[in-house]
What does this fold into?
Amino acid sequence: MENTITTFRQLYYTCKETNKKIYEAALDYEASKGENTEYKVRLQAKKSLDAMKSAIKTGLCSTESSPSGLSGNDCDKLQKRFKDYGAILGSTAQKIMTYTLATSEQNLRMGTIVACPTAGSCGIVPAVLIAYAEDYNITENDQINALITAGEIGRIVSVKMALAGAVGGCQAECGVASAMASAALTQMRGGNIKQIINASALVLKNVLGLTCDPVCGLVEIPCVKRNSFLAIHAVTASELAMANIISKIPADEIVDAMEQTGKLMSPLLKESSQGGLAKTKTAIALEKNILG
Ligand code: SF4
It folds into this structure.
């Protein structure tokens, strides 16, 4: 029979009562649907992980512009800057920022990426997970566990709201990706169930109201750079959570607030490119230039 974990509270108590990790509860959930075995889910997660690594590798070496010409070589610029000057946040943060741009730029070049949870937010989870795994010698098995943990966080949020900019604004895309990345990172760092859920809650609380206003209707501006920002946001939340700094507002209530915020947001700010950045003077000029 299909199990029914639909809230973070249920996830927490299920894990506590069964003495399981979040990824184990997620595997049980998939198995309970009768379509998947643990083996199949882990295999799929490994394929996703490999595709993420490949997107990073290709993206790091490419300077090709997107078909629109709006973006495409920011990752290269950042790598050059770090090569000469390093990063004030340290080498892992440096990797996270570059890996995020590498993956996001691969998306706009129509390369292969893993929508995680969406194509527009595809750089955040891979960058945080893989950069940390490389620098801290995390085994492939534990990377898969972290990815499944991230997926479970995204699944629970998606029970209440669609993970789409057109429905909930960018809080539902890059915001949720950041929460997923924070959970994966906290899992790899040995955080407990409470800390993992709390890391996600801290992220979600701080992305409420994030608009989706892509310039020229293309998933490029502000999407690519936003991935980089929200990857670091995930790291901050994990650090706070590992220090047992808790979100006073519980995760489920934050998801409710996020869903309500999405409904209250004007349709002009939900992927229609009719407001916000998309209607700035420069964006209108770019639109004329590119789209005629
Ligand atoms: S701004 Fe909109 S299109 Fe771009 S990543 Fe966010 S939700 Fe997706």
